[in-house]
Write a structure and sequence with these properties.
single chain, alpha/beta, 5-stranded mixed β-sheet
């Protein structure tokens, strides 16, 4: 078994352990509040890049410089692997695949999604508009947010998936094997990769050290438009519990620092979600409210500027409360209203 020779005690130590295993973090700029996105170069056969960064000249320049620092060029890439469908993780896909001729591996349902990214993103935005209006976001605010979302589509990319990945598959390299785990919640396509010999995970946005991954209410990747709203937080909690059981001395994340104690982090995230659900019950004790009204009481103006993020967060916890019988959802002239029981 090939395992790290000692347990990492700091972010720098953890990155050094990863580098000794031939995995190099490349942090690229994004236009989003989350900041830089972590891509990972795996120096192995095939030469592999995990995620690409957003579609921008600055990100492409920084990626080329980082690769050169490791004695590599884009044209040498043989495999590009995507952790999920968000544009800060796949925006350079078309450019990199064209220049390198690399294979592209992703969760199997992402193939049709990426075949026409603009159309898929437009369908995502239409879905988000329906969710916002159903849950109390005013029409004028929903319209403005829809226009902003459309403007950001340029940071994404279409692409041709040449290797479809399913839960339990393996990516075979000369010096390692990465096992594929589907972990929906943050997005429907979230996929993480475990090196069981080294006890390392490459986790995308499934787990982040410094902030909790938002369980976004996302349009399903399969099925028709008439499906029920996905219960993203319930999915995410199930996914975290599965990940907790994986052996991992080191988790390399899509943003920020590596994670050194993933089971402890997951336990704290589960407690945080329970605390947040309890807070929502207390808010609803006074009167029935829409999800957007709850978000306003919890986050104030942030629930306006980041309406869909906060709405997704509230809806996730309301799903928990409905499931436990503490809250009921009622329809009021086409608007969903939640009340404590």
């Amino acid at each position: 078994m090939t395992t790290p020779d000692r347990r990492a005690t700091s972010a720098e130590d953890a990155l050094a352990l990863a580098q000794r295993a031939g995995i190099h973090r490349i942090a690229l700029p994004t236009p989003f509040l989350v900041g830089r996105v972590n891509c990972y170069l795996i120096e192995d056969e095939p030469l592999t890049l995990i995620d690409t960064g957003p579609n921008s000249g600055k990100s492409l320049d920084d990626l080329e410089r980082a690769l050169a620092g490791h004695g590599r060029r884009i044209e040498e890439l043989e495999l590009i692997v995507l952790t999920h469908q968000h544009m800060d993780h796949l925006g350079l896909l078309e450019i990199l695949a064209r220049r390198s001729g690399a294979e592209v591996a992703s969760f199997h349902l992402l193939g049709p999604y990426l075949a026409d990214f603009s159309r898929s993103a437009a369908a995502d935005d239409e879905f988000a508009q329906t969710v916002m209006r159903r849950h109390g976001v005013p029409d004028d605010l929903a319209t403005v947010l829809g226009s902003l979302a459309a403007a950001f589509r340029a940071f994404g990319s279409s692409g041709h998936v040449t290797r479809e990945l399913r839960d339990g598959d393996e990516l075979q390299f000369r010096d390692r094997t990465l096992k594929v785990h589907h972990r929906p919640g943050h997005s429907p396509s979230d996929t993480i990769f475990s090196d069981e010999d080294r006890e390392m995970l490459i986790a995308g946005d499934h787990l982040l050290a410094n902030i909790s991954s938002n369980p976004l209410v996302s349009r399903p990747l399969a099925g028709g438009a008439d499906q029920p709203r996905p219960q993203a937080l319930l999915q995410y909690i199930d996914s975290m519990r599965l990940t907790r059981e994986l052996p991992a001395r080191l988790v390399l994340s899509g943003h920020g620092d590596p994670i050194l104690e993933h089971a402890e982090l997951i336990d704290e995230r589960l407690r945080m979600h329970r605390r947040r659900a309890d807070r929502i019950v207390h808010i609803l004790d006074a009167q029935p409210l829409t999800a957007h009204e709850i978000a306003l009481r919890m986050w104030g103006n942030v629930a306006v500027t980041q309406a869909y993020l906060t709405l997704s967060e509230v809806l996730g916890h309301l799903d928990l409360l409905v499931e436990s019988g503490q809250v009921a959802e009622r329809d009021r002239d086409g608007i969903a209203v939640f009340e404590a029981l």
